[in-house]
Structure formats: C-alpha cells, structure tokens
Amino acid sequence: MAGFRSLARQVRDPRCDLALRRYSLRKCLERFAPYGHRATWDHLCDRAGFGPEDRSPDPARLVAALDELEAARAVWLAYEVEFADRRRKEKHDGLRRPGSVDDWHRMTWGGFGVAWCDDPRVHPRESLAEVLRRLIAALERAPGSGCPVCGGERLLWRYDLDHDPSAGPVCTDCGILVPRPVLTPEALAYARRGRLLVSA
Known about the structure:
This protein is mainly alpha-helical and 200 residues long. The chain is built from seven helices and two strands, in the order ααααααββα. The radius of gyration is 18 Å and the shape is globular.
C-alpha cells in the first residue's frame, strides 16, 4: 500500500496519466483528511477551483490542492511530535493517567477527522493549515465557550455522526465537530440542551 509521500509524488508527476494523478490525490485522503474524506475532498476541490466530480481537472489545480493538504499535514505532524514528547515527559514524571485532550488525541491519531465535518458540503473556508493551527492553539489553552476554528458560539449537540465519537457539539457556522476538551462544561451543557451560549 502506497504511503502519503509516494501518492503525493504521483500527483505531481506530469508523466502520470491525469486519472492516476486525481486518484492519487483522493488516496492521499485515506492517510490524512482533517474533515473526514468526503468533506476534505470537497474543501480541496472548492479551494483549488475544480469540481468534486470533475474527472479531468487541470493538473495545476490538482497540485494546488495537494500543496494545501501537505501544508496542513506538516502542521499536524509537528503537533503529534510535540504531543508525543510531552506524554513521554509526563510519564517520566509519574503522570500515567492521560487527560481529556489525550483521550481526544488517541481518536484522531494520524490526522483523520481532527476537525470532523459530518456534512461534506459544510466545512471551514480557511486553509486546512490555518484551521489546524487554530484547533491546536485551542487544545493548548483553557477551555472556551465557542468554536476554536471560526469563533462561532452556535454549538448544537448532534447524534448519529459518522465518526467516533458519534455524538457531540457541532458548530452550526463552520460545521466541525468541536473537540470536547476545548469547551467549558457550561458550553457543553448548552450545546446538549440545544441552546445558544450567550457570553457575558
């Protein structure tokens, strides 16, 4: 099975058939897809300027989509290295029981679904790298009341998500499943009740 870098080389290789280059970009999403496969594909197509069903997109647009995906992957891989270093130090210092961020991180190892969008057509508009930077920054500070990606405070608890966890607070503005560790208990309670949390 080809890895991400091998697939990325195929996307960039002008000697490869266009269908193979498009297929290789789709396969990259099996290795790294922050919004989930379908939503990440829709996002990349939208940002690079070709349709999700376009079977013969401009090769330059495929490469532009790959560039964005690689930039986001670099952000996430750097976070995972820092995360692993931190956990190693904590274990060395006797902290064996992981916290809520660690529980969330185990479910998103590798970067798949870190900013899950259950509806593939509803996702943040910013670049994937910027979305991940905002999400990582939120994981590293005290919990807040709104979406760490877009700042929206309209969070609704949704059930039967095609993800693990299958229920949680979804931002009605940008569509991501907001990681529970970045929200205060009050914000989570309001989302469960289907009410908007009004900041004081």
